[in-house]
Write a structure and sequence with these properties.
heterodimer; A: alpha/beta; Ubiquitin-like (UB roll); Alpha-Beta Plaits; 20 helices; 35% helix; B: alpha+beta; Glutaredoxin; 2 domains; 4-stranded mixed β-sheet; 7 helices; elongated
Chain lengths: 592, 157
Amino acid sequence: MEDKKVSLKIDGKVYECDAGMTILEACAKAAIDIPTLCYLKDINQEAACSICLVEVKGAKTLLRSCVTSIKEGMEIFTNTERVRNARRLNLELLLAGHPKDCLVCDRNQSCELRKLAFDMGIREVRFPKTTKTELPLDATSVSLSRDPNKCILCGRCVSVCSAIQSVKAIDFSGRGKSSKVTTFFDSGLANSVCVNCGQCLLVCPTGAIIEKNAIEEVWHALSDPKKFVVVEVAPAVRAAIGEEFGMPAGSLVTAKLAQGLRKLGFAKVFDTQFSADLTIMEEGYELIQRIKNKGILPMITSCSPGWIKFAEHFFPGILGNISSCKSPQQMFGAVAKTYYAEKYNIDPRNIIVVSIMPCTAKKFEASRPEMQSAFDYWKNKMALKEDEAFRDVDYVLTTREASRLIKEAGINFINLPGEDFDEPLGISTGAAVIFGATGGVMEAAVRTAYEVLTGRQLEKLDFMNLRGLNGIKVADIDIDGLNLKVAVANSLSNARVLLEEIEEGRSPYAFIEIMTCPGGCLGGAGQPIPTNNEIRLKRMEAIYREDKNKPLRKSHENPAVQALYKEFLGQPLGEKSHHLLHTYYKKREGVL
Amino acid sequence: MEHKKLNPELVSLVQQWKGKEGNLIMILHEIQNHHGYVPRELSLELSKMLDVPLARIYEVITFYNFFKLIPPGKHRIALCMGTACYLRGAAVILDEIKNILGIKEGQTTKDGLFYLDVVRCLGCCGLAPVVMIDNKVYGKVKKNEVADILSKYIKEE
């Protein structure tokens, strides 16, 4: 069936297409872009919006090209008066219920609805506003904000939450004109099983789901002369932020980014990659310890905060499998406000840590109540009161928010010559860069574990079978006769497969990496929109290019991390590490 | 609100229907028959027992008008808005009931006495406009009679 060909006519020309294709796919082959709105390949094919209508000879009505399969001898017309009018009418009806506040909308530059209205020549909406009452925002979450008034009920968010993430926090409620997308009893994302991954935001064609913005707070901190404001940048940001300035996907802008951030007025421009190397030290030693002491295996990585909340909701029985290591973002905050503060004699109360992340769940992670180890460290030493408590990481900005800071400041990003990150917390290795891609943490950990366990130098640093966009990747890694069985999953529906194996006691692995978002952090919900597989692959290629070009490519060779252990922490998994760099997880109910 | 739990009958029903297609609606029906509505706590319990996401349960109970999210009042007022009743002024009667009781359709009065439902055709169009309270039918209702009709039920308390 799959390799059978079908002959059909599109706008008068004959084409041979694979049987089983939809009209939409066949038209794409014929270089005709049918406008779509709700359609999202392989994820959302609900035929909800009726924008992709085409005329088919012999059919009584116009057909939705996204869900209609092609047939032998079909005659399709994509650009008739009837088609154009029907598409326009449907779009106009959608616009009638929309606030149309595009000038001040977060998604002004990336809104598919706005673009479609322009491309389809809508210059007037003839219908009165259809929704009678203003629906309340869902602002409960610290990561995401939902505005049902901007929602066009395409269902992409519902599909991605269910099919890609298997979280199912949101669904439709009501029907007819009272339909909306919501959580159980409208109780809000924060009171649901939502893991804050934000993949719903990334696929939303309008501004109905956006991140909780922290731009004003960061400007405020930057203008406060008493504050020592430092910034840390996650690996995946440098492989994507260029897109916000019109650069092609896959542009690597590490040096421009460091310079741009310095121009914004940050006292020090540091790198989350420093603490990614630190994470490998702690996590690598934790793995070695678990294997040697017959601890709980497989051990699972803990960098991705969406996955952590997912485990707390859906897999509370395997929390012991998750590495106790904090994520690089949180390790950075804890180190900046203890080691760095001490070394450079800065009052930790005056240090503000801003992180730039490809992620919306990082906002939630930074707000977790236990993430104030630096305060706990100083509390007794400085006789601090509880009301003086400060967070390890004060503000989390997404890649998109960071680009807006740079634009607001009038910095000509593209033409910046580029500068280095600051020492010492800006020094990193290639092993840290690849944290930004699925499989990267695993590869980085293996590079270090091999050398620590064998005492010999690893010849081949590139573990190609851990790379790429496949949902689950497995490998057998030989460490001097010790066979380390590892697995890597990206997106939570793939993670679920590996987690169910663990629950049922049939997991063959010793070490598992889980990243919440498809492709890993480079496909996170804080990244430029659009993010699709083609763009993910380009960002991934940029990340491995950066790794290849780094003089040091193994975390344990990072001189700044070595100095941190020598001057402050002592050794991996030591007393100080335990307090500052490790954390714990707790079971969460499905609803609060 | 008192804490509601699935009674043994419902638990065995859930067990019986577990894994079968269309089970959610069947079980929700039984819950509503038993409690008069679908209590939130029972949705939570059901979600765990059937392994159905909470958002999905909410989708189902809000999609069908049949399912109620709030406890019904002691007396159900069914006001007919079918064609005949509508033409004979049902909208005026509806407004009057709303005014007197201070609730909208689909709501229950604060004292829990009345629940207001708007329905289509009760099958006695000759009596339009028709209001039915519990099982008693009031025909050819006039606006100034509404207060009297309702007060009977209030006095009973």
